[in-house]
Fold these 2 entries.
Entry 1:
Amino acid sequence: MLRTTCPYCGVGCGVTVTDAMLQGDETHPANSGRLCSKGAALGDTLDLPDRLMKPLLYGQESDWDTALDAIAATFRDILTEHGPDAIGFYVSGQFLTEDYYVANKLMKGFIGSGNIDTNSRLCMSSSVAGHVRAFGEDVVPGCYDDIGKADLVVQVGSNMAWCHPVLYQRLMAARGTKIVAIDPRRTATAETADLHLALRPGSDVSLFNGLLVHLAECGAMDHGWIARHVCGFADALDAARRDAPSIEAVAGATDLRAADVRRFYDLFARTERVVTLYSQGVNQSVCGTDKVGAILNCHLATARIGRPGMGPFSLTGQPNAMGGREVGGLANQLAAHMDFTAADIDRVRRFWNAPDIAARPGRKAVELFEAAADGQLKAIWIAATNPAASMPRAGRVREALQNCPLVIVSDAWPTDTTALADIVLPAASWAEKDGTVTNSERRISRQRAFRAAPGEARPDWWMFAEVGRRLGWAEAFTYAGPAAIFREHAALSAFENGGRRVFDLGGLAALDDRQYDALGPVQWPCPADGPASDSARLFADGRFPTSDGRARMVPVTSATGIERPGDTLVLNTGRLRDQWHTMTRTGRVVRLMAHEEAPLLGLNPGDAAARGIEDGGLVRIESRHGEAVLRARLDPALRSGTAFLPMHWTDQFSSAGPAGRLVHALSDPISGQPDLKGTAVRVRSVVERWCGLLLRQDDGMPRFAADVLATKAPIVGGFAFALSGWGALEDFARTERALHALLALPVGAEIIAYSDPKKSVFRYAGVASGRLLSCLFLGAPGSNFAEAEPARGWLGKELTAESRLSLLAGREASLRGGRNMVCACFAIEEGAIREAIRAGRLTSTAEIGDVLGAGTNCGSCIPELKKLLAPSGRLAEVA
Ligand code: SF4
């Protein structure tokens, strides 16, 4: 049996591999054997098609030497002509720590620029900035066990049920813990909270400033601890009093009922063991660092930090966002929790023997792509991330990449970004890579390779090291493997540390290869002189890594807000339960796509009615930066004035393209984290004139006219493309040539056609050598294409005379009713669950589990099961 780690979210669940069977690792402290729907489907991602196998140079297959020589030669020319700041790296929280370490060392140590940033900038850099400002170092004080030990868990801007499902299950298993969810959306997480505060988007600072004032007024602060261990208390409290003088003022600023605000404040004040969990709803904001500061202030003022069941807790989105923070993968960090101070620069320069080390921070993500757009950047290397889809103003990012003289992209699968690359480097994927990752609770786990990389795919660290060697720095970039890199990383963390930096892996710096291979999950700090007294929890002793050893309470005040014209909505973007990032892996797994097959724009029913928009109808959404046509979903879980769009879809999966095209690039001025949840958009109804369903084996997005919405989902044996048109059906695919292209047919293939123009029914099947290659069904809006159901099972198969006859004939079956995949682990759809509840008079999720098994594996679907049981969704009152 081999033990490795799930590559998706920051929970960092352990996975065991036996004869290609993947299961949750019962010995791993993060998950004790549990996996969520995404983790449970990891086995389905091992043999996905379309892997990048060979280096591509300007669209032509090449070899590693040619590609790496070309990169090194161009970098050398740029360094000579334009200097180090004309080169940039944009890397990823999907990287292993070893990949991150080598890329950071190459850029900051030897190329000599700070221009390496990571997609973690979009995910949690406001938490990093908040930690550094308050604690003196980017340190998460607590651990997962605290969630089970807390009497009150406050969830702020965090849909844990979908985004950190295994941790959410740990919380659900904790008996008697009160839960307050603070989120403008009534998410699956909020559904199960004791109290849901659906605050006005962006008003978190008011809410927590008001809490600080309340804690002061009701005597809940620990003034002795504050006097000994905290600076800035009086200023922070003054600022809070000016910002949020009363509960009524907070209620006005947050648009909450004063009674609900008071209930939350009283609960917080009278409960000693409080954990505040927060993630993207806090971080992705123009005032994300101040939101974090407002939360930390409340914990510092009550000394609820670093003790069992107490503390602020930032949940990282990506599997190794934390590892990136450790090595210095953000442009404003140097390395190993050292900054761009003269002393740290000198220390790292000596350790790396890097005379030309960068002397100042580099460009953060948004600035990096702006520099590419305006010509300052002459080369960018993008690795394991897809900024052409995921960055704000993604259209502008695409223009920037087209404008940049050299774009290198290393990835495992084709993406919207590889499509814009001059050089594409084939990267090894999860099952093929060896190294370490660090989860949200500072726990380092090994990721172990258990398959050979296909074709010529190689690990990312190797690519960066090879370019470093070709640039003349062979001594610095010759590594026998990831173990050697890890040893160096650990040694740097301990180098001249002397207890000044909490991040210290000195105890791991002498691991030999065998010990590295066998390394079990371990939390840092782990200094050379023995384990820290309690590495699971930090700061309980009141000593912080600041110049005077005290924490800083920082005065924060509410942001003035973003100007939003009267008829616009605030667009929030976020994750779905069964998808990961830009769907390069999860979007190709049938059972994961069945939960949500298309990107739906969530709208509050009142806002929709005011615009004449119906549930399932087409809508055009426009921001200052882009527009798209999508289907709407009316969702009472959304506050009036807000809209929600999943972040996952890209040009590879939908003609509507990525949400990133619509999103503004306003960022937090301290952290540089973009506000991905506050774009002003206009939404209006679009009249749908026809719809269609295309089934085919070829997975490429077909080219359509501008008036067609097409969304791709994998099915067994091929792909289904849901089509909707707002132009005339007569103009769509009515020529033989257009049909051949749509059906992706080879020369000589036959098209079987059936049509009834009076009823707007058109059906086509592409057949070659007796096998069904593709089908196209077109009809009036609302058609459910029941007749397509048998064709799904015949894709790629030889047709019998009978199946050929019935291929395009009608059948009584429903394609749309009940296809929502509620339980992805056991492939149980909503319709089956409703039927079981009705037939068995089921009243609890446990009874559903007994009858169907749904919800008994990862538990990610339990909030949805609860919704099916209790449509009214009334929340229990707080005692
Ligand atoms: Fe993977 Fe799910 Fe665990 Fe996250 S919660 S690490 S996605 S199994």
Note: Residues 811-818, 872-879 have pLDDT under 50 and may be disordered.
Entry 2:
Amino acid sequence: MEDALTTYLEEARPRQLAELQAWLRIPSISTLAGHKADVKQAATWLMAQMRQAGLEHVELIETETQPMVYADWLHAGPDQPTVLIYGHFDVQPVDPLHLWATPPFEPTVRGENLYARGASDDKGQTFLHVKAVEALLQTRGGLPVNVKFLVEGEEESGSRAIRQYVPAHAAKLAADAALISDSHILAPDQPAVLYGLRGMWTAEVTVTTADHDLHSGSYGGAIHNANQALAELLAQLHDAQGRITVPGFYDEVRVLSAEERGRLARLPYGEAEILAESGAPAVYGEPEYSVVERTGARPTLEINGMWGGFIGEGFKTVIPCQAHAKISCRLVPYQDPARIGELVTRHLQRLAPPTVKVEVTGTRGSHAFLTPYDTPAIQAAARAYALVFGKEPVYTLEGGGIPVVNVLQEALNLPVVLMGFGLPDDNLHAPNEKFYLPNFYRGIRTSIAFLEEMAGTDT
Ligand code: BES
Ligand code: MN
Ligand code: MN
């Protein structure tokens, strides 16, 4: 990097940090209706930043749910490729609040980390691309490639609007590659490109055993308790080894080659790391798969919440007539969320004894994502990482999901580059979310390096 840009980036650090902190102060929780105005404010704050950075056509895209922001800079010339940068400015709820060392919307630097909800997921990682573009426009007056931004406010609640918007605006969003920083690398100095993400299917299960709650003295022993019935049902969904018992559940699952399994086994990440991060006493799950495979390449069925009956103060001898659970499946290529929904629903119905009525209300969910990584755009990302981090990236699978990736891949026909800058212990969705600041600044430089590496690339 030439001197002017290096000097600029060094001097700009305190301002870049202060700006990110200002964005993080906006509690843009998309899953809570009471925060709708905050999500909008996070959008308009970003728009002001984009204009100041020198981006053009900055636009607020209102939807039925949460807004999105579009912006571009298209003066690199028709011979240069176009990069579409995606991110999200909505965040997860903050409970349990009392476990935060500092309040979630008062971004605080401790040591080398910035603590706040959204610091890593995904305001910090989105903002670094705005700062990269700004640095290039301020020091050189131009970008090496054409750039479009599409940033949404609904990722944490399923990306409904953007998944409709993208196919309907394919010409406007036309590009040669999509770039997303909404994931983590393996260690501070070990960059990682993701070539797969898991998909999702979610549902609510309701079990009914009577038409009203009953006295457990008069009816106990003769009428099935709904809490018990729900526990019995859900307990049958896995075997003792952690395999899912739903018939047909694994039929479509992508089988890993020996080569891929060998490569995943050599990653500098495994049981020790996952135990240290989680505080769990032992790992769980299918014994014939490594934890990287279990989280990256195997599907799951999770019980996210259960409720029913009496949980108030004191004591109540009652047989609850109804109990509920929220369940979700993490899906892998080539599972179809709608088919998984049918299989799980049918299995629960079949397991239900005559004493129990089961209802499953499901949503369709999203498909898993998979991309080859020997493509020009991903190799440009690999060179950018290597240049800034001084180390070649590894290629890995991630268990989380980003619902829009398949739409970018299929509706826009783009190679999707998943180039993250978070760390595995960033506490995403949990108390004390953080972003490791040295990698915020390295992320800005890596973003610049990526745009430079993309210039002249024939995708
Ligand atoms: N950024 C995460 C996904 C992620 C996490 C990718 C860790 C790579 C590493 C994203 O914001 C997220 O939380 N996605 C949700 C999607 C859901 C709410 C539709 C998820 O995976 O639960
Ligand atoms: Mn995210
Ligand atoms: Mn998230």
Note: The chain has a mean pLDDT of 97.
